[in-house]
TrEMBL record:
Entry function: Catalyzes the NAD(+)-dependent oxidation of L-threonine to 2-amino-3-ketobutyrate, mediating L-threonine catabolism.
Family: Belongs to the NAD(P)-dependent epimerase/dehydratase family.
Lineage: Eukaryota, Metazoa, Chordata, Craniata, Vertebrata
Name under which the protein is recorded: L-threonine 3-dehydrogenase, mitochondrial
Catalytic activity, as annotated: L-threonine + NAD(+) = (2S)-2-amino-3-oxobutanoate + NADH + H(+)
Pathway: Amino-acid degradation; L-threonine degradation via oxydo-reductase pathway; glycine from L-threonine: step 1/2
Superkingdom field: Eukaryota
The gene coding this protein: LOC101876489
Length: 441
C-alpha cells in the first residue's frame, strides 16, 4: 500500500447517485461530501446543506451503497474538481484518500459515518506504538495515572514482560500492518496516538532497509490513520534530526537539517510530513525533539547516547566502564521523567498556544568526562577506559551540543526538573548504589 499514492489507493467508498439526489450539495460530488463530512467529522467547508449519512432521509440513505466502484477515476475527478473549482471559491482541505477505504469487516452496512465523539470532560483513549522500548512503558504508566488504566493501550511487536502485561491493556501492533493498525484504532475508539516505534541511530545504520521501513513506511501508516480518525498524534523527533551543517551550539528549532543517518533522515521526514498533514488536512500533529534520554528501569534500544545509561549499570555491577565516545563529546541529555512530562504537557497544551508543531526540548548537556566526574561522587572507585566506536563517534560529532528550547518554554511553559547532579543522584537511588558500595567494601 505504501507505494500507492494515497489519492489513488481507496478501494471502496460510500456512493450517492448524482442524478436523483434530492439533497442540495456543494460544488463537489456527493461522494466527496459524504466522505469529507463522515470521516473528518466536519461540516462541509462550503457550508452547503450536505449531511452526514446518519442524518440523511431513509430514501436518501437507501441510495447510499457501499459497493465497489472505479475509485481511482471518481475520486481523482472529485478531488481535482474540488481543488480547481470549489463551490464557494475557498481552498478546501482534503483528507488523503487512502484514509477513506472502508473495510466491510469494520463498518456495519447501516453504521453511522460519524466516528464516536467525546465531550471535553472525557479522557482520551490512548494507543502507544513501539511501547516496549526504553520510553513506552514509563509513558503508559504516566498516562494511566492521568487518564485511567484502561484508557491507555500499550502496543509492540515484542512479547511483554509479566509486570508490563499485567499492569494494563497490551496489544500486538505492527505499524507496518496498516489494516491491523486501523482496526485497533477503530475497535478501541482511540483518540490520541503516541507513535514510539522506531529503529534508533546506531541500529538504524546497521540495518538501513529495516530502519527505512519502520521509520518511514510505518510513519506513513500512522499519519494516514491519524488523519482518517481525527486523532491527536504525537511523534517524537530527536537531536539526531540535525547534522554537521546545522548550528551545533546552540541548535535552534529552525535551521539547516541535513542529518547523515537514516534515523535522522526519517525523523526530519516525520517532522515535515506531520506538519504537512497538519496544515493540509488539519491533523493535530505534535512533535518534540528529544535529547538522549536516561532512565534507570528501562534499557535503551541501540542509540548513540546509550553510554549515558550503561555507565550507571556498569558502575554498580562491575565498577568498570568502557566508553565508546571520546571524553569531550558533548550531547544534550534528559532524565526520562522530564521527557515524559514534556510529552504529556505538549499533548495537553491548547492548540492556540502552539506557534509551531515541532519543538526542541532541553534539560542539560554533558560530555562523558563530565558524567564520569559526577558518577564518581557516588562510586569513587569507578575505573574508566575509552574505546571509541567510529560509527557512533561520527554520529555524535554531527549532532547538536546544546539545544535551544526557548520556543517550548515560551509557548507552553516547558521547564525541566533534573540537571546533571540531580539526574545522577536519582539514577543511583533508583538502582540502589548502596548494594554496590557494600559489595566493594
Ligand atoms: N530513547 C531516546 O534517547 C530517544 C531520544 C530521542 C527520540 N527518541 C524517540 O522516542 C521513541 C521511543 O524511543 P525508545 O528509546 O523507546 O526506542 P526503543 O528502540 O527502545 O523502542 C522502540 C520500539 O519499537 C518497536 N518496534 C520496532 N519495529 C516495530 C514495528 N514494525 N511495529 C511496532 N513496533 C516496532 C520495538 O520493538 C521497540 O520496542 C522513538 O521514536 C525514538 O526515535 C528516543
Ligand atoms: C538521541 C536519540 O534519538 C537516541 N537515543 C539515539 O541515540 O539514537
Amino acid at each position: 500500500m505504501d507505494h500507492v499514492p494515497p489519492m489513488l489507493a481507496v478501494l471502496e467508498v460510500p456512493v450517492v447517485k448524482n442524478q436523483q439526489d434530492p439533497v442540495p450539495r456543494c460544488g463537489t460530488t456527493p461522494t466527496f461530501c459524504l466522505v469529507l463530512i463522515g470521516f473528518q467529522k466536519r461540516r462541509c467547508p462550503i457550508n452547503c446543506s450536505c449531511q452526514p449519512a446518519s442524518a440523511l432521509s431513509p430514501a436518501d440513505r437507501q441510495r447510499i451503497g457501499r459497493r465497489k466502484m472505479p475509485i481511482v477515476r471518481n475520486m481523482s475527478r472529485a478531488v481535482r474538481q474540488l481543488l480547481q473549482n470549489p463551490g464557494c471559491g475557498c481552498a478546501i482541505p482534503v483528507i488523503p484518500a487512502r484514509c477513506i477505504g472502508i473495510s466491510p469487516r469494520q463498518v456495519a452496512s447501516d453504521a453511522s459515518f460519524h466516528s464516536v465523539s467525546f465531550s471535553n470532560s472525557d479522557h482520551p483513549r490512548v494507543l502507544i506504538t513501539g511501547g516496549l522500548g526504553q520510553l513506552g512503558v514509563g509513558l503508559a504508566k504516566l498516562l494511566r495515572k492521568r487518564f485511567g488504566k484502561n484508557n491507555v493501550i500499550l502496543s509492540d511487536i515484542r512479547k511483554p514482560a509479566d509486570n508490563v502485561f499485567y499492569s494494563g491493556p497490551f496489544i500486538y501492533a505492527d505499524i507496518l500492518d496498516y489494516k491491523n493498525l486501523r482496526e485497533i484504532v477503530v475497535n478501541n475508539r482511540i483518540t490520541w496516538l503516541f507513535h514510539y516505534s522506531a529503529l534508533l541511530s546506531a541500529v538504524g545504520e546497521a540495518n538501513v532497509p529495516l530502519a527505512r521501513a519502520v521509520n518511514i513506511t510505518g510513519l506513513h501508516n500512522v499519519l494516514d490513520i491519524a488523519a482518517e480518525h481525527n486523532l491527536r498524534l504525537f511523534v517524537p523527533s530527536t537531536i539526531g534530526a540535525f547534522g554537521p551543517t546545522s548550528p551545533r551550539n546552540p541548535t535552534p528549532d529552525l535551521c539547516i537539517q541535513r542529518p547523515r543517518t537514516i534515523y535522522g533522515v526519517s525523523k526530519v521526514h516525520a517532522e515535515l510530513m506531520g506538519e504537512y498533514y497538519h496544515y493540509r488536512y488539519g491533523l493535530d500533529f505534535r512533535c518534540l525533539r528529544y535529547p538522549g534520554i536516561i532512565s534507570a528501569d528501562s534499557q535503551p534500544g541501540g542509540g548513540t547516547t546509550d553510554y549515558a545509561v550503561q555507565i550507571f549499570h556498569d558502575a554498580i555491577k562491575t565498577g568498570k566502564f568502557q566508553c565508546y565516545l571520546k571524553p569531550d563529546t558533548r550531547l544534550p541529555m534528559m532524565y526520562i521523567d522530564d521527557c515524559l512530562k514534556a510529552t504529556l504537557e505538549v499533548m495537553e497544551a491548547p492548540a492556540e498556544a502552539l506557534s509551531m508543531r515541532t519543538y526542541n526540548i532541553s534539560a542539560m548537556s554533558f560530555t562523558p568526562e563530565e558524567l564520569v566526574q559526577e558518577v564518581q561522587k557516588h562510586v569513587p572507585e569507578l575505573q574508566l577506559t575509552y574505546k571509541v566506536d567510529e560509527t557512533r563517534q561520527a554520529i555524535a560529532d554531527s549532532w547538536p551540543m546544546n539545544f535551544d528550547d526557548r520556543n517550548a518554554r515560551r509557548d507552553w511553559g516547558w521547564k525541566h526538573d533534573y540537571d546533571l547532579p540531580e539526574l545522577v543522584t536519582t539514577m543511583f537511588s533508583f538502582l540502589g548504589s548502596d548494594s554496590r558500595i557494600a559489595r566493594v567494601n
